[in-house]
Amino acid sequence: MATGNKLGRFLGKEGGINFETAVNRADNAMQMIRPEVEANVDEVTVEIGERVNRFPAKPTESQLRDLQKLATQVAGLAGLYDRDDLGQAAYHLCELLDLDLLCGRYDGAAVCAHVQTMLLLRTPDRFKALDRVKMVAALRSLVEHARQRAKPQLAALDRRS
Amino acid sequence: MTVTPAVLKHNFNFEKASVLTVDPSQISTEVMSLMLNGFGFRRLFRCANIDAGIEVAKLRALDLILIDPYAFGGEAYDFIRWLRSEKANPNRETPAIIATAYTDIRMVTNARQCGADYVLNKPFSTRTFLERIIWVAQREGRHSDLMAPSELVSQAGSGMELW
Fold it and tell me: What is chain A's alpha carbon radius of gyration, rounded to the nearest angstrom?
């Protein structure tokens, strides 16, 4: 099915720019939006906390999916400006919610641990770098525990795909 | 991760390339647009939902499609599948990159098989993003069946790179 590639015709063009120039221009442009992105990450993190506080004992699938969408936003943006730990915590929350949804259960304590950690990580200088790494590692182990519990469902999913 | 010499040696001019972005998040769209502008892209069609993306794909000749499926679930993958299946559509062979922070475990196979050229983890650096764009630009119109060279696959990041 080799039919060529439309985007490829823009490579090797006279009068164009090189890789390093393009990266530098984009990096400079990215600084313009930094305050806006950081404020957005902060707002969404707070909203995640508020939503979980309002959850009933057994939240619906729709509520969990909406929470996962918010966590995905944080996971996608936080690491852009040196907030990798917050982004990773949000990513682990996405994983945990996915596993909970797959198993049809809600591990409220584990979700709260993620959300509280995210709220703590909102302030970048509150903890030393090594402590932040340990906090994220603790969440990773909670997700691993959930993955072990979801083994039968994950195996069934594998068979289907 | 290092930049390959093959990537570094190319000059490029994306000024006349048309890009469709489909992402419900306004701030994510802004971030991606700024990066694309820095790379020299000027013709951006920014859509917040799949239906708007389909309309643009029907009416415009596109050179690159970027889509974040997080809010759309299976619909996002169906969009790319639809694009690849439309024999009369001029965008049938347009490179498509899925840019996402998290892929639902039920959607991993879908993401692999929908016909996208690459699944890229968010957040990504400008360097990584441009490397992927150039990588898909260099491909020969084949989708979902090639492995990215190992030097282009990030071992860091919070998520996973499927290619």
Answer: 20
- A20-58 per-position pLDDT tens digit: 999 999 999 999 999 999 999 999 999 999 999 999 999
pLDDT tens, A80-123? 998 999 999 999 999 999 999 999 999 999 999 999 999 999 98
Q: How far apart are CA B67 and CA B70, in angstroms?
A: 9
What whole-number distance in Å separates Cα of residue B128 and Cα of residue A156? 35
State residue A48 phi and psi, 5-degree precision: -60, -45
Indicate the helix (H) or strand (E) that contains B119.
strand B118-121
Determine contact, residues B54/B79, Cβ cutoff 8 Å: yes
Distance from CA of B140 to the nearest CA of A (A): 5
The whole-angstrom distance between B88's CA and the closest CA on chain A is 14
Is A106 in contact with A100 (CB distance < 8 Å)?
A: yes
pLDDT digits (tens, 9 = 90+) for B7-49: 667 789 999 999 999 999 999 999 999 999 999 999 999 999 9
Cα–Cα dist B46/B22, whole Å = 6
The span from the CA of B112 to the CA of B146, in Å, is 11
> What are the φ and ψ backbone dihedral angles of B146, each rounded to 5 degrees?
-120, 150
- Mutation target to probe the B interface, by most B beta carbons within 10 A, among A14, A23, A61 is A23
Q: What is the pLDDT of residues B75-89, one digit of tens each?
A: 999 999 999 998 888
Return residues 56-95 of A near B (CB < 8 Å): 68-69, 71-73, 75-80, 84, 87-88, 90-91, 94-95
pLDDT given for residue A141 in this prediction: 98
Q: What is the identity of the amino acid at B149? A: P
Distance from CA of B16 to the nearest CA of A (A): 8
CB pairs under 8 A between A and B: 183
